[in-house]
Amino acid sequence: MTTTDAPGAPTLWIDGPLLGFDTETTGTDVTRDRIVTAALVLSHGPGREAETVATWLIDPGVEIPEAAAAVHGISTAHAREHGMQPAEALEEVGLSADYAAAAHSRGDGQDSWEPALRSYQSTAIAKVGDDVGTPVIELDGRAFFGPVLTRVPRGEQAGVLFDAAVTLGSYEHFFEIKKSRTEDPSAE
After folding, report:
1. Which domains does the chain carry?
2. Segment 24-69, tens digit of pLDDT
3. Whether 144 contacts 129, CB under 8 Å
4. pTM of full prediction above 0.85
5. Which residues pair with 54 in a beta bridge?
């Protein structure tokens, strides 16, 4: 995808500013575990030399399991002593404190986002079948899993690959292309 809207603007999305969001949690169960740290990383330019990082340490209000602490190095005692309350951290990030209640719900409360998230996922999977995962892309009314790329295409190659995805996706009998991944993803 290219853009030529403003003079001097980046010509590829990957060359413009990117905002990343990362968390460390009490575990990997999205219905039970809670955020311990959050970070926003604003990265500029092609070489990604200039980055602005903002971090928050949050008291999750529950014990941090040893296995999780081994990953991120934050103990329950440290989070309780130095961490912010979830609502305070959300407000500092610029989000409504209402998200704290939803984030800490178990998926069955009035404020739960679980039904909406499950609905979005179900809608996507209904379009491609339940034997695939995400990402799901829909182009011109046809949906499919992928594409999964380990490198960011640039310039003319990005347009060629996008056009190829549109072409494959528009063929009503297109089913699947798959190859084992032989390298780790990279933003280079």
Report:
1. 1-111 (3.30.420.10), 113-175 (no CATH)
2. 999 887 777 889 998 888 887 666 666 778 899 999 999 999 999 9
3. no
4. no
5. 40
d(Cα 73, Cα 64) in Å, to the nearest integer?
10
**Model confidence over 141-170: pLDDT tens digits?**
788 887 788 888 887 888 888 888 888 888
Label residue 6 exposed, middle or buried (CB < 10 Å: 0-12, 13-18, 19+): exposed
d(CA 73, CA 143): 41
* DSSP state letters, the chain: -B--SSTT--SBGGGS-EEEEEEEES-S-TTT--EEEEEEEEEESTT--EEEEEEEEB--SS---HHHHHHH---HHHHHHHPBPHHHHHHHHTS-THHHHHHTS-S-STT--HHHHHHHHHHHHHHH-TT--S-EEEETTEEEE----SS---HHHHHHHHHHHHHHHHSTT---------S-----
